């Protein structure tokens, strides 16, 4: 193991490992530092619902053997209605997927240091030149990348991270057996990924059931503990209480039994990114943050951010005389906003408006989606104003007025 590399990456999640894959494939010396021990990886960080789509699988060369279940449709639910869209997808076994990324990048020459907790940057003349880990161990690189998620030990010290506590989303998920996948009165969830908008289950957020084969599924919920959540929250209820309430009240889950060792908790920040780079440094994945604000899809977004950082590093390192200064790394921000999360601000506003709506408005949304063509939802997801207008009604004016007041008063809600 060397102590000098072209690129040093902190964090072996989807963003960090994919960045290492791309850089190693280009022939660069890259090392990834990961907090967890290799024989347990990724026990502590195995926290993603891991729903994704064929475009991600194809773009990043993900093999079939890390897929738990291929799905044929996406289902949106409200308290009393649902909408079904034919959309191929895949539910990954997240631990196998993360191990694949590590081994695939290793095959191209990437080095990994497991059981290596990054503690801070090594600075020289105001620039980061390396990483300190496990107290006094050191490793050096021409470019350093923080892919550690919200912990962000490097980005925070460099003043790059701007994660806000009030934008911190929490989630809980169990894998269950004994699910009634095709219950009369509900959508058939065979080979489906279902997202439910229902404040009784996930106030100011959403819940999900992702079918994983036979009578098994991933079942969970998430929300941000902010004004949209507190508007509908039950006093003293924790996220565990909401999941228990769903298990007790949804007949599809009446016989559900948790699968041993398949309980996950996770968190992410839902907000606009601030600064994402400085001299010799980039922040990627959930360090930025990168999770899609509307539906919570994170794997593809994180891997895209890793790929954009790798392309940016390559643009500097392949030219011997081009220093990786902040100016020369600026292309990373441009690529991020163009390729990873276009229309991020509009999608954040859509997310806040969606979570402000009452439960009966979710029922109306399902009716509208069933009435309109499938392209309406796809276009609205991308922030198309015409498509969004089709989903609004005169009766929404009071909600829109309240939404405007909230967005103009950050003391009410950031």
TrEMBL record:
Organism: Salinadaptatus halalkaliphilus
Cited InterPro entries: Dggglyphlred_Halo (IPR054884), FAD-bd (IPR002938), FAD/NAD-bd_sf (IPR036188), Geranylgeranyl_reductase (IPR050407)
SUPFAM superfamilies to which the protein is assigned, alphabetical: FAD/NAD(P)-binding domain (SSF51905)
Domain (FAD-binding): residue spans on this chain: 5-305
UniProt-recorded name of the protein: NAD(P)/FAD-dependent oxidoreductase
Molecular function via GO: FAD binding
NCBIfam families attached to this UniProt entry: Dggglyphlred_Halo
Pfam families hit by this protein: FAD_binding_3
């Amino acid at each position: 193991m060397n102590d000098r590399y072209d690129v040093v990456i902190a964090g072996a999640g989807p963003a960090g490992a994919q960045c290492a894959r791309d850089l190693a494939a280009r022939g660069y010396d890259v090392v990834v530092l990961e907090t967890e021990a290799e024989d347990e990886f990724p026990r502590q960080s195995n926290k993603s619902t891991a729903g994704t789509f064929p475009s991600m699988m194809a773009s990043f060369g993900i093999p079939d053997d890390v897929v738990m279940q291929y799905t044929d449709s996406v289902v949106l639910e409200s308290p009393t209605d649902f909408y079904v869209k034919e959309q191929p997808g895949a539910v990954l076994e997240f631990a196998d997927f993360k191990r694949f990324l590590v081994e695939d990048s290793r095959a191209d020459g990437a080095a990994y240091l497991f059981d290596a907790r990054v503690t801070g940057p090594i600075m020289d003349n105001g620039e980061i030149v390396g990483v300190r880990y496990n107290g006094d161990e050191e490793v050096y690189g021409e470019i350093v990348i923080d892919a550690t998620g919200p912990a962000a030990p490097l980005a925070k010290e460099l003043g790059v991270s701007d994660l806000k506590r009030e934008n911190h989303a929490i989630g809980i998920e169990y894998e269950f057996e004994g699910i009634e996948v095709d219950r009369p009165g509900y959508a058939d969830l065979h080979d489906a990924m279902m997202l439910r908008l229902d404040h009784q289950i996930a106030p100011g957020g959403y819940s999900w059931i992702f079918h994983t084969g036979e009578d098994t599924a991933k079942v969970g919920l998430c929300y941000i503990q902010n004004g949209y959540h507190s508007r509908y929250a039950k006093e003293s209820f924790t996220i565990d209480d909401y999941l228990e309430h769903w298990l007790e009240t949804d007949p599809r889950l009446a016989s559900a039994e948790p699968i041993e060792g398949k309980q996950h908790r996770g968190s992410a920040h839902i907000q606009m990114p601030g600064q994402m780079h400085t001299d010799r440094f980039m922040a990627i994945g959930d360090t930025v943050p990168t999770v899609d604000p509307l539906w919570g899809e994170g794997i593809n977004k994180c891997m895209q951010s890793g790929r954009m950082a790798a392309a940016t590093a390559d643009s500097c390192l392949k030219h011997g005389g081009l220093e990786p200064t902040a100016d020369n790394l600026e292309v990373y921000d441009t690529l991020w906003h163009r390729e990873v999360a276009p229309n991020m601000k509009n999608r954040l506003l859509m997310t806040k408006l969606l979570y402000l709506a009452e439960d009966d408005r979710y029922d109306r949304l399902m009716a509208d989606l069933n009435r309109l063509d499938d392209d309406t939802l796809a276009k609205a997801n991308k922030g198309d104003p015409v498509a969004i207008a089709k989903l609004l009604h005169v009766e929404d004016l009071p909600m829109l007025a309240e939404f405007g007041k909230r967005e103009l008063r950050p003391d009410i809600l950031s």
